[in-house]
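Quick question: what would this complex look like in 3D?
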Amino acid sequence: MAQIFSPLPGTFYTKPSPEALPYKNSGDPVVVGDIVGLIEVMKTFIEIKSEVPGTFSGYVAADGSPVTAGQVLAELAA
Amino acid sequence: MSLKIVNPGLSTSIQDLGRPGYFHLGIPMGGAMDRFALRVGNMLVGNPEDAAGLEAVFMGPEIEFQKTAIVSVTGADLPIRVDGQLQEAWTSFEVRAGQTLSFEFLKSGARAYIAISGGIQTPAALGSRSTYPIGALGGVNGRAIQALDELPLGYSSNAIAGKSVAPSMRRGPGSPARLRVLPGLYWHRLTEAAGNGFFEDEWTVALEADRMGYRFKGGRSLEFVDREQPFGAGADPSNIVDGCYSYGSIQVPGGAEPIVLHRDAVSGGGYFTLGAVISADMDLIGQLQPHTSVKFDRVDMAGAMAARHERKNLLMKIREELS
């Protein structure tokens, strides 16, 4: 099991816009550099990319929830 | 060249103590959001307190040193590594030529200050190296640092590793953070209940919080005293005939969410300001993450001056300790 961490504090989003589908669903393949979510802070959206390949297990942080740096956002099965 | 930026972090910028003297022309003072942390960082590495260092917000940069230097990291708790080896914060340490300075995830606070012996020697603009991106002043060609930038360092002969500031003298916000406020010229625009409510409510830092200003939400909306709309003022009760904004002043557009103006703020406009966060507490705002709880405490002028005096004394004590 690999984890994707938030690199900074802010608000986490699992999808690119409120109407869109989540970036990843359980079972989706993930390659290095795939975007799995966004963090909003200081009027900016920062793309969260996976640094490891695997199969997406699910989001740990909810869409629209406040997160801190180092918090687990999502999990992958290697 | 002496510092090579491998990874800039989120928004890492060169900052010194700023460029006061041009606010009347619309050019903000700029400079470190937590001036205390930058001053102490510079003291630790034997620099003048107004030397330019790096302000890293929420995320640390990765920097390859091309020249051996003494370094300190103060302010936010952002664990420090030199070639993978953990280093103490608020303590000077050596980084040898060829080594890389990097950081782990932020633990607390918001902005870490990286002071390097000799100071960063990029060209000054209007007397300061501070980065003001909107005006394209200071920094590296008027912007924050980017990967592959090379930053020149000055000469230093009096820096030593192992200097440290006692934890009791490292200043940061508590939880909830308490910010002291001096009510201002437009206080009479608020009803008594609204004025009291501002100080009673607990606020949280909104996502719209940066070097220009910090927005707070979660408290009750303000109610205004009825008035006849002055000539030249907007129709909203929070509007005034344009006036000057001071560093730390608190505007509340529409009476909804207070915004504390910080180092890179606009110098005037058409919103009333209910007062100002006192200068002694402005550094604390620079260390607030979004979603943090904040309480505002009312002080009078004597209280504000006493707090300023206390802050000066703390700096003096650290100066003596490190000299």
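Answer marked as accepted. The beta strands of chain A are 2-5, 10-13, 29-30, 35-41, 44-49, 54-59, 65-67, 72-77.
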